[in-house]
Amino acid sequence: MLTVLLAAPQDVPLFNGRDLAGWVNVNCGPETFVVQDGEIRCSGVPTGVLRTDRPYRNFILELEWMHERPGGNAGLFLWSDPLPARGQPFTRSVEVQVMLTDDVKDAEGRLLYTGHGDIFSIHGASMTPDRPHPAGWERCLPAERLVRGAGSWNHYRVVARDGTLKLSVNGREVSGATAMAPREGYICLESEGSPIRFRNIRLTPLPDSGVPLEPSMRCLPDEGFRSLFDGSLAGWREAADRAGHWKPVDWRLTYDGKGSSLWTDESFGDFELICDWRWTGQPRRTRVPQVQPDGTVARNPDGSERTVEIQDHGDSGILLRGSDKSQANIWCWPVGSGEVHGYRTDPNQPATVRAAVTPSERADAPPGQWNRFRIRMVGDRLSVNLNGKQVLENAQLPGVPASGPIGLQDHGSPLEFANIYIRPLRSDGSPADQPR
Q1: Phi, psi (deg, nearest 5) at residue 170
Q2: Across the chain, what does the average pLDDT equal?
Q3: How many CB atoms lie within 10 A of CB 248?
Q4: Residues 360, 58: Cα–Cα separation, whole Å
Q5: 3-state secondary structure (DSSP) of residue 263
Q6: Is 215 helix (H, G, I), strand (E, B) or coil?
Q7: In the predicted structure, residue 6 carries a pLDDT above the cut 70
Q8: Is the dihedral of CA 379, 381, 384, 385 positive or negative?
Q9: What is the sign of the dihedral through the CA atoms of 333, 335, 339 and 341?
């Protein structure tokens, strides 16, 4: 009889104790996560995540953590997407709570969450907790309270296998969940307002069935985007005589509508840009032109412009390649954001150009809610996706500069931006960092 010996799974050190090799700073500043004395030390500011540079499916993950102050808050994200969810500093993932707080109950006395190893889904992920939550949430509360307080090290052991998750805190299993979606993705350390230390981060890969997962069970792919906003104005410039109106507020970039446009220091040629935005000012009722699908304005029988009344929160835009004319508009007009006003209203442009820069539909979220632009510039061609809907497709911008900075437009209106990411493209539209 032939006996086959299978090699035991080998531990993989996710942290080498010297630097952040193997990790990607998703949306934080360079000083948010640093290595000191064999530890990853997180300042907690701004709110965001540090993730592994590759996704994982089945594994045993062990790490130690220590909050420096009482009430500390952080987290461990599993099966994460590479970039934050729309209007959030965090990614779609399953979070293992890393927190020092008292129990929180609702007005009815139901326990909502603890600081002792809760597991819960966030921003589009899903799971079934091992024990039903008192309020019906997708959250597993711990069976025991074993977390040590500020200044003491805690040990987490996470076993993730085929969509199940078990968490042990300081040597004993306390919480778990099943039916995870997704169940393959990145591992993240969270920054959320308070200093925390991590050390001895090791992962043991576990075998899987070998059957490829359905797309809904996997994280989104890493497309090579890098952040343009890290919680500070580093890499950005505004008019010196009107400075101070753009202000980083944790993970958001706020504008009061009283300054100048904000521009990147860096110039870009062909690129793809992700940018979240939302209105923050008070609306006023006003009348605006009724734009038709071909980009022309509808007319009344007497030849005057036909207008419609709207609740107007303001006007802004994403300025492309240093040009005020080549901008993806942000506004409340019925034609929708993403429209390129400077080309649509230029009588010297062909009708085909003016029609192409008119959105195919209005895809804006209600005022006050977050929107996400995905803007693609290749040569003189512009495509705009707003909230998952393609509103411009390969629209031509004749005469657009070949390269230039990206701007967040001042048009006198307060609003917020977040999650600003870019990736360079080649002239054929392929990612510049991928081999041909």
Answers
A1: 50, 40
A2: 95
A3: 17
A4: 43
A5: strand
A6: helix
A7: no
A8: negative
A9: negative
pTM value is: 0.95
Query: In one letter, which amino acid is 12?
Result: V
Q: What is the dihedral of CA 51, 55, 59, 64, to 10 degrees?
A: -10
CA dist., res. 160 & res. 180, Å (int) = 10
| Cβ contact 137:128 at 8 Å | no
In DSSP terms, 311 is beta-bridged to: 285
Please give the Cα distance from 382 to 373 (Å, whole number).
12
Here the tokens at position 13 are: 């050190």
pLDDT digits (tens, 9 = 90+) for 260-306: 999 999 999 999 999 999 999 999 999 999 999 999 999 999 999 99
Of residues 421, 423, 422, 419, the one with CA closest to residue 46? 419
CA atoms lying within 13 Å on the CB side of residue 172: 8
Q: What is the DSSP letter of 356?
A: H
Locate tokens 């539209």: which residue? 429
Q: Which two tokens stand for residue 38?
A: 């064999």
Whole-Å CA distances, 188 to 82, 91, 431? 9, 9, 25
Q: Report the candidate in 312, 327, 314, 313 with the shortest Cα–Cα distance to residue 408.
A: 327
* H/E element, 341: helix 341-344
Instruction: Write b or e for each residue in 281-295: b if 16 or more Cβ atoms lie within 10 A of its Cβ, otherwise e.
Output: beeeeeebbbbeeeb
Provide the residue count of the chain.
436
Asked if 387 and 366 count as a contact pair (C-beta separation under 8 A), the reply is no
Q: What would the two tokens of residue 42 be? A: 């997180």
Q: Which amino acid is at 86?
A: R
Here the tokens at position 135 are: 């309020």
Q: Domains plus CATH for the chain?
A: 12-217 (2.60.120.560), 226-424 (2.60.120.560)
- Give the tokens for residue 180: 């995870």
